[in-house]
Amino acid sequence: MKLSVKIIKESLVALVIVSLISSIGGIGLQAVEENLLVLAPLIIIFPAMNNMLGGLGCIVSSKFTTLLYLGKIKPKNWKSSKDIKQMMARIIAVSVVSAVYLVVLAFLISAEFSLGVFIKVFLMILIITVVVTLSVSIIAVIGGLYIHKKNMDPDNFLIPISTATADMLSLLMFSVMIIVFF
User: Fold this and answer.
1) Domain of 173: which CATH number?
2) Spatial distance between the Cα atoms of 178 and 182, rounded to a whole number of angstroms
3) For 1, which DSSP code?
4) How far apart are CA 50 and CA 171, in angstroms?
5) From residue 90, how far is each of 65, 85, 86, 99 by CA, in Å?
6) 64-93 residues labelled b (16+ CB within 10 A) or e (exposed)
7) With 70 as the cut, is the pLDDT of residue 2 above it?
8) Domain tally for the chain?
9) Which range marks the domain in which residue 157 is found?
10) 149 — phi, psi (to 5°)?
11) Where is average pLDDT lowest: 11-15, 27-31, 98-102, 174-178?
12) Do the Cβ atoms of 143 and 154 come closer than 8 Å?
């Protein structure tokens, strides 16, 4: 009985934090609504990119908490862990390949092609993907170590917080990149 109460308490805290983080992201998107509606590939890319980045946040959080639980990462020497380095290299590689795939697919679906627009969208999505993936990974690792140090289960916090952070950052960066590139 005690364990279920603890899980519910920890989950409620995570849920409140996630709700606050997620609500911030939509503000930036509202500011670039006009530019977004002009370019069909951006409308196609945005939901897929947002979903992809949230998924990558879940993967990083899940992998990190598993490594922490199995004792493969020690809180004192996590920076030199080869498992962390491998995880980061793989997640960045997957995010870059996914970004390329999303851009090409969006332009094929939209049946609109302009080399200048393609290059801008490609750079925009690549920058967003790499920055958000790195940011969420850092948050997952540092947050996971902090939560673990407080004797709480990182799984109850990291996956929802990583996903919400990825959503918020991708929304905000998408908005900023539209302003910068278009």
Assistant:
1) 1.10.357.20
2) 5
3) -
4) 8
5) 16, 9, 6, 14
6) bbebbeeeebeeeebeeeebbeebbeebbe
7) no
8) 1
9) 2-181
10) -65, -30
11) 27-31
12) yes
Element (H, E) at 45: helix 40-69
Among the listed residues 178, 163, 89, 101, the one whose alpha carbon sits nearest the alpha carbon of residue 132: 163
CB-CB contact of 162 with 22 (8 Å): no
Looking at residue 58, its pLDDT comes to 87
Compute the mean pLDDT over every residue in the chain, rounded to the nearest whole number. Answer: 81
Q: Are 75 and 148 in contact (CB under 8 A)?
A: yes
The DSSP-derived string for 144-159 is HHHHHHTT--THHHHH
What average pLDDT does range 74-99 have in this prediction?
A: 86
Global pTM reads 0.75
**From CA 159, how far away is CA 110, in angstroms rounded?**
33
Local confidence band at 74 (pLDDT 50, 70, 90 cut-offs): confident
